[in-house]
Amino acid sequence: MIYFEIRNNKGLILATNIDSFNDNNLFLGNEYKNISVKNYKNVFKKFESGTVRLIGDKKDDLFLSKKIVSRTIQAYSEIINVLNSLKTSQESTNKIFFHNLITTHTRLQGEVETIISEDALIKCNDHISQIAAVKKSIQSNPNGVSESMLEVVKRVTDLQAQIEGLKMLSGEVNTDFGFHNIKRVLLNISYPFYNEFKKNNISLNINIDDQESENYKFRIDYKLFNVAMHHFFNNIVKYAKPYSHVRVNMYGETKVIEFIMHSIKINKEELSEINKLHVSGINVGDLAGDGVGMYMIKHALDRLGAYLEIRPNYSRCEYIINIPYVENRFLFNF
Fold it and tell me: Do 140 and 270 belong to one domain?
């Protein structure tokens, strides 16, 4: 377990879990030093924007390499400005976004670890021997490494979308609108999700003609569009009916992107509520998350000057383990 504390340059704590460290008194008076006491290590670094402090078992892989410690602290420091801006919003909201960010980063590290362990790299004498160790790992398990690499790609896009989403909420995004071939953009954003679609036996069919997508380009900011679509694809993974098809259409003249799928029923009274923070659908049951996805989609679309229209078809409802599924049409209007 790694314990952390992030402060801004005024000393205000932005995020921490150090209170849950049982032996916190070990470093009393030495909080801002790089020292080891008993089995634990305290690492501290000051940046222009604030400070980062880490505590953990000194035998943990993280603390066995100065390079890894430095990279980890740098990763934490890069979100100081974002957290500082979000400090004015609800504390519970900050915790959700920060938790998601750290969780994704941890999963990314875990996938990299399955390809080549930090311990194996640390034992190498130089860069050449590290390359040889990585090659050996790939050659001994090509299928496993390939699967892990696909997961790494997915986690990196997760991380990018979450960081851009946080920047968007804190007002740090500088928009860069341009005309984009929407089919190419959707293919680029969706491919990291293919493995999860496969696990749930969901097929994604982007029914957009190549020539039409070239003739009718959409004026969007790519990063904001990526935030909206990333959260939407995450929702497809969670809420689309297993063993089903998701169809994607584009209407160039009216600038509409349409997703048609069988997914969890959204009641009429929910349609105006699900875009709010912490609100999950009534029918999602144990699949409910933190109620962040639709909230982020709406914020990104607002910045893009677009909106999402949801058209459920209640004429036919199918239940799977007491969860109702209907055909839903999601229309992104630009």
Answer: no
Range of the domain at 208: 177-333
Nearest by Cα to 329 from 225, 247, 212, 242:
247
Could you list the beta-strand ranges (E) of the chain.
3-8, 13-16, 35-37, 40-46, 50-57, 177-180, 202-206, 218-221, 244-251, 256-264, 307-320, 323-333
Q: Same structural domain for residues 189 and 329?
A: yes
> Which of 81, 103, 131 corresponds to the end of one domain?
81
Is residue 234 over pLDDT 70?
yes
Q: Give yes or no for a contact between 72 and 4, defined as CB atoms under 8 angstroms apart.
A: no
Lateral strand order in the sheet of 256-264: 202-206, 244-251, 256-264, 323-333, 307-320
CATH number for the domain harbouring residue 251: 3.30.565.10
Instruction: Quickly tell me which residue has 């909230």 as its tokens.
Output: 295
Task: Return the DSSP state at 282.
Answer: T
In this predicted structure, what is the pLDDT of residue 293? 84
The rounded distance, in Å, linking the Cα atoms of 180 and 183 is 9
| Rounded CA separation 283/22 (Å) | 40
Q: What torsion, rounded to 10 degrees, do the Cα atoms 8, 227, 308, 203 define?
A: -140
* pTM to 2 decimal places: 0.62
pLDDT at 171: 67
Q: Check whether residue 284 and residue 266 sit in a common domain.
A: yes
